[in-house]
Amino acid sequence: MLRIVCDKCHRRGSYNAAKLVKKYGLDAKLFEWSDEITADCPRKQANNFNDFCGARCPDLSKVVQKRDYFDDHFGSKEHATPI
Predict the structure, then answer these.
(1) Which of 11, 72, 82, 83 is spaced 20 to 30 Å from 26 by Cα?
(2) Contact, 11 vs 55, CB < 8 A?
(3) Alpha-carbon distance 67 to 83, whole Å?
C-alpha cells in the first residue's frame, strides 16, 4: 500500500501499489499519478504558491525497495506498459 497524506488539510488515502503500476506503468513518475489523485485539493486549485498542496507519500521508499517484486509480476522496465 502507498499512502498519500497532507499535514496541512489532514486529507489522506491509501492506494494499492500494484494497481497503480498496472494503471500507470512500472516506470511512471510519481507526479504523473499523484497530480490526478490530488486534483481536487483546494490548495492546488487556488494556485497560491504561498500555501501549496502538502500531499506527500511517506511510504514511497518502502514501495521503491520492492522494485524486484514489481519487475517479477509486471515485467522489467524494458517491458513496462507506456503511459
Answers:
(1) 11
(2) yes
(3) 18
10-51: pLDDT as tens digits: 888 898 888 888 888 777 776 777 888 888 888 888 888 888
Provide the whole-model pTM: 0.59
Identify the DSSP state of 78: G
Strand partners, 2: 15
Q: Measured between alpha carbons, how far is 56 from 35 in angstroms, rounded to an integer?
A: 11
Number of residues assigned to the chain: 83
Asked if residues 26 and 77 have their Cβ atoms less than 8 Å apart, the reply is: yes
Decide if 2 contacts 20 (C-beta within 8 A): yes
Cell of 29: 513518475
Domain boundaries, the chain: 2-79
Which residue, among 7, 13, 8, has the nearest Cα to 46 in the 3D structure?
A: 8
Is 29:77 a contact under the CB 8 Å cutoff? no
